[in-house]
Amino acid sequence: GGGGAGFGSAFSDIFEDMFGEMMGGGGRRSTGPMRGSDMQFSLDVTLEDAFKGKDAKLKIPTVETCGDCKGTGSSDGGKPEKCPDCAGAGRVRAQQGFFTIERTCTTCNGNGTVIKSPCKKCGGAGRVRGEKTVQISIPAGIAEGQRIRMGGEGEAGIRGGPAGDLFVLINVKPHKFFRREGANLHCRVPVPMTTAALGGNLDVPTIEGQKASIKIPAGTQTGQQLRLKSKGMNI
């Protein structure tokens, strides 16, 4: 009975190790500089802001380079050294019965290197969580769902690697009067019955915050669509 349990345990260990490799979690990680991750945040803007453009400030949580160790992860500025337990391989082998099991080195967590004097502020990671404010320029005519890329404003790189990018996803808030379709704006305007029957002129609001005069033809019916040229969105 005991032998069967040992075999099952070993088989389970092998399956776990193979599955970890397939999922990308068991291999040796890079020990050199690595690019920081990209970040994405949503920004709500009004239709008026989307029409004329806007400069805005966006406060975001981020991962920044540790100021104490300048991203090295070492309190004394020393470079990472080869892990003594895995000799820099990032993996160690252990014999279990008939099988040889290879696992991620727990001393260096698969990096292959260790820092002898870790920075107290970041714990040797070289990066810390923080918050920063970025200035973003929203171009006139931007549409719902568009993204603005801000190079180098993402997470800080690892061990001196370049920072990732920040992508700002634009969400245009619904407007109480206008409905946008591409470059065109649609709105519903109540027209007096006498004006609809006999014709005339009517002042209607525009997205610019002004008013424009539109000619109502005689016999205009409910739901009829009239057009004001060049009064839509900036594209």
Describe the structure concisely:
The chain has helices spanning 2-22, 47-52, 193-198, and strands at residues 39-45, 54-65, 81-82, 91-96, 99-104, 113-114, 127-138, 147-150, 166-172, 179-181, 184-186, 200-205, 211-216.
Task: Describe this protein's structure.
The protein is of the alpha+beta class and 235 residues long. The chain is built from three helices and 13 strands. The chain has helices spanning 2-22, 47-52, 193-198, and strands at residues 39-45, 54-65, 81-82, 91-96, 99-104, 113-114, 127-138, 147-150, 166-172, 179-181, 184-186, 200-205, 211-216. The strands form six sheets. Strands 1-9-8 form a three-stranded mixed beta sheet. Strands 2-7 form a two-stranded antiparallel sheet. A hairpin with a 5-residue loop joins strand 12 (200-205) and strand 13.
Mean pLDDT: 83
Q: The biggest beta sheet, please? A: 3 strands, mixed
> Could you say which overall geometry the principal axes of the C-alpha atoms support?
elongated
Cα-based radius of gyration, to the nearest Å: 31 Å
Strand order of the largest sheet: 1-9-8
**Proportion in β-strands:** 25-35%
Low-pLDDT residue intervals, each spanning 5 or more residues: 1-12, 14-30
Considering DSSP H and I runs of 4 or more, what fraction of the residues is helical?
A: 10-25%
State the distance separating the first and last CA atoms.
Answer: 76 Å
**Class by alpha and beta content:** alpha+beta
Count every helix, treating DSSP H or I runs of 4 or more residues as helices: 3
Question: Secondary-structure element sequence?
Answer: HEHEEEEEEEEEEHEE
